[in-house]
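Revision sheet: structure tokens.
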Amino acid sequence: MRGAAPLLCVALTLSACAQSTPPQPQVTEKQPEPLIHIPVDDRGSGIVGPGGGALLGSTIGAGHGFQAAVVAGLLIGYAVHGSNGPTLSGFPASEQRRAMAKVMSVEIGQPVRWWTATEQASGTITPINEYRDKEGRRCRDFTETRSVRATHGQLSGTACL
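Predicted:
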């Protein structure tokens, strides 16, 4: 029994090390700057611009050009109102957080990819600049592309440890 105690301590220590994860950085995403400021609060959904553009396109288009007008209105609405693309929750969000932690340790310019097959979600995060903030934390500016079930988006931000 005496010989088991040191072995148990070693086993617990090794298992604690094996389960350690990199520290999670504090992430601030930059919101896209819309071309036109619409005085409607869509609570961050980004639906007002594309929805309004698609509605406008549906009133302009007719006949064979109807679908093209709706799609053009939708795209113009995204450009006018701005959008970061799809939001993440559940398993895709946890995979993105893991990738964001890795971004703090890779070389500047080296992309970190993440994906989940079941949710059809993927993304690439690339650190583009590193510096120290006023609080002395190591920060990295990054760009990110993400896709969730064929909805794509690009965003940028800063991660600090």
